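#structure-requests
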Amino acid sequence: MVDHVFADLSLAALYDSLNPWRPGDDFYLGLLREAGAVLDIGCGTGQLLRRARAEGHRGRLTGLDPAAAMLVQARRARPDVEWVLGDVRVRRWRAEFDLVVMTGHAFQELVADEEIRVCLRAARAALKDGGRFVFETRNPEARAWERWTPDRVLRATAADGTPVRVWHEVQGGGPRGDRVHFTETYAGPGWPGPRVNHGVLRFLDAGRLEGFLAEAGLAVADQYGDWDLSALTPGSPEIITVARKA
């Protein structure tokens, strides 16, 4: 769900098994196929860029992530992709990419207004004329956090064969404004104790998103409610946004 805990190298190795390829990845891969130069902000282990390169993408593929352990996994799999450690506050590009993406609901980890503004300005600056910035957030109307309960357990196997269980739990009984505080717990037999990550995600509606985009000089070109490209409705699970330079 979030990448903070994956600063731990042993847990970073679990990321791909806990986050298998999904319809959203197919959507983004289709965009990558049409783009010569791509920047993936918050790329994690780089599943998307790795798949694009593996199927023959010959253009520039750049993945940016602040977690060194995640990029260790990425580099092991595809050293022929440009993997960059850091975030948009310190790593910046000017008119170099046809496509900039943020996948896996990474945009929701931008909790403060200024974090969102900095990211959007950086994404716009990185785009060539005519380029697109594409990302998704969970639609707050769908109230996804209500399904983040300890009884919904994910399972994976660590590199040493240890079975690992993962579950989430919302803190404080629910959202605080448009922010949801939660824990993500990892447990395995023989471990001294569970490893717990405390996270916060921000749930912005389409109107607020459009306001931030406009402030950064980006305009909504398309918006979808799910990966089948259906129209955004109050009950849609996602807000998938395709933006261009205004």
